[in-house]
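Q: What changes when flavin-adenine dinucleotide is included in the input?
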Amino acid sequence: MATQEKVDVAIVGAGPSGSIFADVLARAGKKVVVLEFGPDWDYKQFVSSEIWGKRLKHAPRFQLAGGHNPGHGSNAGWGTGGAMIHFFANWPRLHPNDFKVKSQYGKGLDWPFTYDELLPYYDRIADDVGISGDAAQERRWYPVGKAYPMPPLKTFRQGDIFNDAFKAHGIPLAPMPVAINSTPYKGRPACVNCGWCHVGCAIGAAASPLVNHLRGARGRGAEVRPYSYVTRVLTNQSGDRVIGVEYFDAKREQHVQPAATVVLAAYAAEIPRIMFNSATDKHPKGLSNRNELVGKYLMCHSAANVWALFDEDVQNYMGTAANQFMSYETYDKRWPKKGFGSIFLRTGAAMKPNVGLASARPDLFGPPLADFMKRAARGLTRIGVFGEVMPRAENRVELSSDKDEFGLPIARIIHAYDQDAIDSWDYGCEQALEIAKAAKPKEAWRSGGPGTAHLIGGTIMGTDASDSVTNSYGQTHELANLYLAGAGLFPTEGSVNPTSTLMAVSLRGAEHMAKNFGAIAS
Ligand SMILES: Cc1cc2nc3c(=O)[nH]c(=O)nc-3n(C[C@H](O)[C@H](O)[C@H](O)COP(=O)(O)OP(=O)(O)OC[C@H]3O[C@@H](n4cnc5c(N)ncnc54)[C@H](O)[C@@H]3O)c2cc1C
Ligand code: SF4
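A: The predicted holo structure follows.
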């Protein structure tokens, strides 16, 4: 086993959350190494093809159980940039009531800080990343903060077609804020509306760590080591500090990377797994897990699509993988007549053969599917529904008895929705179906489900070790020089896509680490 030279910060995972830590700590003059399981991507090598795009996503390394499985679709980062290199770039934010669900509604959990405390970080991330949208229109629903740096993206018929139907249901729409350039921004070009974002934007119009924080970190001297699979975090003999990580390289040779601090930014399923696998006699249940909360309170968004097929050309092949419009009108947690939790409606995302057309009718196969896809290629559109689900300790990540190719137990995810979640999802879908029908398509139908999207929680933050794994900065309660980053920290999830929030939370955590570095480093 080779031992590398000691660094100030070892970061596990080169997705958006790890890249922010790398950028902030490199800017603070620290020696940073980022260990990334997958390859080192260059967006200029991306090819607008669904077959080619499969190489951006790795095979899952977790087992599923429990009833409503989170699946793999929204949880598939691999290589520099993480899942953000092929995400759909929707950029909505949480609302003030999402941070105080327990205090305001007597359900779920509270965050250890308020929306107001996170707001400056949301605004700074929007500037760094480059967001297109219209904050003025969103202010009818919540105090969104500063104007976005770019105006909204161009719209196409498949989004516009629903405008009147939503209005008729008393649900106003606003442009979706998106992490895609509507104008040239910070040296990157404007989007050309080709709709291939889900296999990686080959011109750099979509934001990702490859064009912002990871690039910034490298410019400031951070080293990025691709094909480095981290298996364990190492602790000192007394068990009160982490001292580095152990990893395998592309040749399957094992290394130790000594480090004064460690950041786990490997996404919600993998972080608890690494913490469990790092158990020692001083941490017999895994790192920072004396309270047995590691892995608990795992959440997904309930998800569905309502499909509408028109005879006319709705321009569904143009635009972006991000939606054109969204509404927070249904975001009040008491809005659903059945169940509890906010509902987020969106519409107008571009469709390609796999992402959209084929998945609209999973019951079809062979000639009937080909027939349907011919009609759908120009006439199909949809309304997307995300529902909020309350955190429950029994939804969790634990270790499986199955092992990976390096002999370490893989993660087992146990997840099921409660009745509140199923009822609110059902109510949200029924509303979306009524709206879709009001636009007078040839046919409209609901997808099956409830489906799932995004993996959230599992290493939640809170006020102290009685309720959480980390403090509000992602610093673990038991090991002052171990930080966690990403949506795994969220105590509740709202019903919006998580990346704007996890990047704002990461920026807050990284600056805390930089400021307190002298006191915490081993
Ligand atoms: C298809 C799809 C569409 C999405 N659309 C949206 C959207 O529209 N809006 C939105 O807000 N979010 C969206 N998301 C979610 C978004 O991509 C994630 O929230 C975000 O990428 C999470 O960032 P992260 O840095 O925490 O984790 P990731 O991006 O998952 O990065 C984690 C990195 O850690 C690496 N890693 C894992 N284990 C190890 C290990 N043991 N050793 C070393 N490295 C490791 C992985 O290879 C990966 O590169 C989408 C995701 C997918 C897959
Ligand atoms: S639609 Fe725009 S952001 Fe998406 S891949 Fe094409 S150019 Fe890039």
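Observations recorded in class: The chain has a mean pLDDT of 95.
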